[in-house]
């Protein structure tokens, strides 16, 4: 049995207009999405901005209401369960948000940020809570003292680790990661992604990984779904999607990937930086001495030509 199954999920937002603010139209943000995710796997949901990825994730976690369809988690239909029966299942699904700069409350200490889900589900003494938070901080590679600091005292990558620690507090089975690295510098992206893979192994997690970046999706995911205007146009294994894309939209998306391996991308960015710092670019002139158009050329410091 799959850990999570979406059956014909639809989420439509009403568009209101006119003097009486009547519903005049619907935005079909998610329009008939069916997905099945096996325990321990990473399912990547990819597509351009506005195609409905975030709405799908938020609906699974209960932040949005579904219009129709089923969300089966461990075989139970979340929408059909009473609040009381749904509550214990909710703790098994957590979310990592896109922007670690805005998703952590700046007025709360890291201890309170990470302990918040615990306080909703468990009654721990403050000593037990502190110990649990500090163990988690160490697991995500931060110092236990970080518990007494505020989010602004950390870098973007460290903040995303705090977001990951927060998602792990209740030992969830499924984590929905919505663009977890898109707000981070490319050099930090690879670290956080690899760290998420380590955490997945250690905690036996299943990920629904949402991204618009096919390079990152390839690095992270076993199964991939391509979304376009609220619908899934193609689903398959990582190899199916990248080696044999069937749908024209998938083929176009793949053709636009600049460099699909994030580790390679980082290596290339570093190479580019080194090259730029050791080379100076001579400014172009319009014509050379023979009257031919001047070609822009890079010259090493030892061969620099003094510009007139
Ligand atoms: N609360 C809302 N009310 C009305 N329309 C909404 C609402 N939230 C999202 N939408 C619309 O639903 C569609 C899907 O939005 P969604 O945020 O799910 O897309 P996305 O693929 O996650 O995009 P991005 O990558 O830019 O976050 C968009 O057209 C968006 O404008």
Automatic annotation (TrEMBL):
Single GO BP term: peptide transport
ABC transporter domain mapped to chain residues: 4-254
Entry similarity comment: Belongs to the ABC transporter superfamily.
Signal peptide boundaries: none
Originating organism: Paenibacillus terrae
Assigned keywords, A-Z: ATP-binding, Nucleotide-binding, Transport
Protein name: Peptide ABC transporter substrate-binding protein
SUPFAM superfamilies with a match to the protein in the record: P-loop containing nucleoside triphosphate hydrolases
GO MF: ATP binding; ATP hydrolysis activity
Pfam families attached to this UniProt entry: ABC_tran, oligo_HPY
């Amino acid at each position: 049995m799959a850990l999570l199954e979406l059956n014909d999920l639809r989420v439509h937002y009403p568009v209101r207009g006119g003097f009486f603010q009547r519903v005049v139209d619907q935005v079909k943000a998610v329009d008939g999405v069916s997905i099945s995710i096996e325990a321990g796997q990473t399912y990547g949901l990819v597509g351009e901005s506005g195609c409905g990825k975030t709405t799908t994730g938020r609906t699974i976690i209960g932040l949005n209401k579904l219009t129709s369809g089923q969300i089966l988690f461990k075989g139970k239909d979340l929408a059909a369960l009473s609040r009381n029966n749904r509550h214990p299942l909710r703790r098994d699904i957590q979310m990592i948000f896109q922007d670690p700069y805005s998703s952590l409350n700046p007025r709360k200490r890291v201890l309170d940020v990470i302990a918040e889900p615990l306080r909703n589900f468990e009654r721990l003494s403050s000593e037990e809570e502190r110990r649990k938070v500090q163990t988690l901080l160490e697991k995500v590679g931060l110092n236990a003292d970080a518990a007494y600091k505020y989010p602004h005292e950390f870098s973007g990558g460290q903040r995303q680790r705090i977001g990951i620690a927060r998602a792990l507090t209740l030992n969830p089975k499924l984590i929905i990661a919505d663009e977890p690295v898109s707000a981070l510098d490319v050099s930090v992206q690879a670290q956080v992604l690899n760290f998420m893979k380590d955490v997945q192994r250690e905690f036996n997690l299943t990920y629904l990984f949402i991204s618009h970046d096919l390079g990152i999706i390839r690095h992270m995911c076993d199964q991939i779904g391509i979304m376009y205007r609220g619908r899934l146009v193609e689903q398959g294994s990582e190899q199916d999607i990248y080696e044999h894309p069937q749908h024209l939209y998938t083929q176009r998306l793949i053709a636009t990937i600049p460099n699909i391996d994030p580790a390679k991308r980082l290596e290339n960015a570093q190479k580019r930086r080194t090259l730029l710092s050791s080379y100076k670019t001579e400014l172009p002139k319009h014509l050379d001495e023979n009257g031919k158009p001047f070609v822009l050329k890079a010259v090493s410091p030892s061969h620099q030509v003094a510009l007139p």
